[in-house]
Amino acid sequence: MFDESLIDYFISLVKGYDFGDIRFCNSDSTKINIDSGEVRSVSKLDGFGFGIRILHNGVWGFASSTNMTKEAIKDSVERAYKIISVAPKNDKIELSQNPEEVSLKPSWKIDPREIDISEKLGITMAAYKSTKINGVHGAVCNYSENIEEWMVGNTLGTKVSFTNSNLRLGLQVFVKDESATQFVVKTINGNSGFEFFDDKVTAFGADAAEEATHLIGAKPVKGGVYDVVLNPGMTGVYTHEAFGHASEADGIISGMSVLENKIGKKVGSEIVNIVDDPTIANARGSYTFDSEGTKAKKRVIVENGILKTYLHTLETASYLKMEPNGAARASGFSSKPIARMSNTFIAPSNNKEDIYNGVKSGVALFDFQYGYVSPESGAFTFKSQYGRMIKNGELGEYIRDVSLVGSTLDILNRVDMVGSDMQLDGGTCGKEGQYIPVTSGGPYIRIRGVVVGGQ
Amino acid sequence: MVDNDLLISIMGSLNLDAEFEAYFDKYKVTNISVEKTRFKNIEIKENNSLSVTCLYNGKMSTVTSNQVTSKNSIIELFNSAYKLAKNAGATDCRKHFSSKRGQNGINPYSKDDILDIGGISEKLINASKAASSKEKIYSIRADFSVVEEEISIANTNGINNNWKGNDSYISVSAVAKDGAEQESGGDSMEAIDFHKLDINSVFDNAIKNALGMLGAKPTNSFKGQLLIDSRSACTLFQQFLQAINGENILKNRSFLVGKKDMKIASEVLEIREENSIEGSFKSRGFDDELIPTNSKYLIDGGYLKTFLYNIYSAEKMNEEPTGNGFDGSVGVTNIVIKKGSSSINDMIRKVDNGVYLVDTGDSPNISSGDLYANVMNGYYIKNGEIVHPVKETVIGINMLDLFMNISHVGGDVFQSDGIFSPSILVDNVNISGKI
User: Fold this and answer.
1) Domain's final residue, options B212, B230, B249
2) What is the pLDDT of residues B271-302, one digit of tens each?
3) Sequence-ordered strand ranges (E) for A92-232
4) pTM of the model
5) Residues in A 52-111 with any Cβ partner in B closer than 8 A
6) Are residues A86 and B117, on separate chains, in Cβ contact within 8 Å?
7) Which residue of B has its CA nearest to A332?
8) What is the ipTM of this complex?
9) Residue ranges of domains in chain A
10) CB of B407 within 8 A of CB of B427?
11) Would an 8 Å CB–CB cutoff place A223 in contact with chain B?
12) Closest partner residue to A379 among B46, B65, B376, by Cβ?
């Protein structure tokens, strides 16, 4: 896959006791878009290169190249030291890591790169066609595949190589009534071989279509304060966007998070446990090593309502005098690793009670459409794809254009029931211009007295 | 180095029964970040990539690679695109690639100048230190970026176009704390010449916005006026462009379907696309489909004058392409909302009872036009005076009502990603606070 001797050559160029690391990445991606039955685009993209970092007296230098030669590595190291020489001085930090030396082969059965494009086109078209039921006004189907081979080495002795395979099929299904066109979005995705696409392709399309038809005639909800039930998709988006980003340690250091200085303190209801786990088999956000070569491990961020840890890179762990926990991720060879999530969720409980019980008048929100959050203040808005009114413990009419409005810690303290079911939804998370595959989810949860945005 | 001469020479030597278009993009971005009073990061990222699009018997494919260091690797890319188009090409309305040249001279490039990374970093740190010393300011973060980009496009129909541009950007986020309350605010600025970025002014506005949010509370629910800050107005008009996107019109996914040449806005709203504005990175003489761009009215005197078409949507709707084929769909060069003469303070004084919306992350439902926007940063105004900062308050209005109810357009203009918008004042808006 890669020439390991290039790591040794790189290390030989790092001066004195400076820290240095090098990341090689070879990526292949394929994308197909079908809109209203027409194949609108078919594209392939490949990228190949390396990025290096040098840490000298608390200052980072970074450079990258697409030329995989010793000369290019030497030139990159010189450029990194040049950046360091002009940068303002910082306090010195020492990085530590349990070094690993391992070369992992992918565990898949079928390498997606070996599959002919016509078969991928067939899968995409089959998913599209499965949405064609009465009431559906149109659909868009997107196939995407991204295979990344990585090799990471550093001056602490780490030398690891591994492969990530992200496969995704996404559907946007439209319905129309006299007042508006509405849509639902559904995806299936995994870090897996091509065997991932079995008969689930058409089943998920049919489910998406049926769900979309419920929106015909749906009316906007009147905004106000309600008791709320979130389905796993909405639980996940709250957990990822509002809480997960606030737990990334770079934001803690910069004073831009509501979770700063909260380790060991109560941040939510005692029935809430929040986990970020990159070791879940075949999940879209999973990986074996992070982009600094730290072995991936499960992180319990909140236990019984108490904040237990942050998500760390080597640098943030050193700065906060905590243990690195394998959360440094880079979106490609030309990007620097930063603190990121993987598969983030509220852990399910053993509670089997009907979650709608005891809700006299409320709103259930289903699946995420879009949203935004300020990690600094904790204020957020998450718009769901649709909702349903709850009356006397029963689900009622479908509603549209409905959103959850609140602040991160206030909401977490208002959770009074966590369900026992569990589901993860795949997505792509953006931060500082870097986009990485993740999942988020959890069970159904119930929250008392929160603002629902609507008409 | 890849250039059009090399691409044209390779295309001339291919003995394949298809047309080709090659798009070479040379991109470099320099990022400098500081947080609190500490230097955080300098990052220089470069990427050279070649995209080859093949048109074979009405089917199209695109392959892209950054491994284009040799002539053989480039030839391999052309062969790969040909194979992909032949086996699984996408539907396209084009029988041939464009033979229209477009305007090559529109290059939003400021003078070649070496970025003084050390000097800029020191300037950011000094501004950050000054900000951090202010009472109740807890944290500050600044990100400074300079982008340089060159595009070369050539095709088998003799087109040989070039574009060169640069851009710079600064954004600052500030956190203000008062006891247990923590609020944030920010500001940003964009200019093709990084010397023209007013770093201190952006820091001052971010601090003002963060401090101004301390004490935020919901308003009562009422119908009143909505003053949309020029920054938020840029976001709003970005979404309007999706509503006149020819592909969304074609697929019946826009609230403006059937509204061309109809009155959809107040007379005070005039929106133009301007393809050549000195000082804007979005200025371009040709689109990604090599159709010449142009300047045109989108809304004039309140009337919707045109939709925006790429080749695909134009062909399907029996219209002419409008030079708006960008990024595989429909896009624009620069969008200019005609400004008025009032300052933002004058605009505030025009509000009897309403909300000044500084920031929201929400956007309208393009198919229905309904907008339900949470006020992330804003103020309640009574009798022309700011009363208190606002949170957990939702604005509700349909976009057609919003456009029709615009009573004033400000003289302040914010530039964001090619949108140039003043603040706008809207009457009769539903404002819902906590009950």
Assistant:
1) B212
2) 999 999 988 999 999 999 889 999 999 999 99
3) 101-103, 136-154, 159-176, 181-191, 219-220, 224-230
4) 0.91
5) 59-64, 66-67, 79, 83, 86-90
6) yes
7) B45
8) 0.86
9) 5-213, 219-453
10) yes
11) yes
12) B376
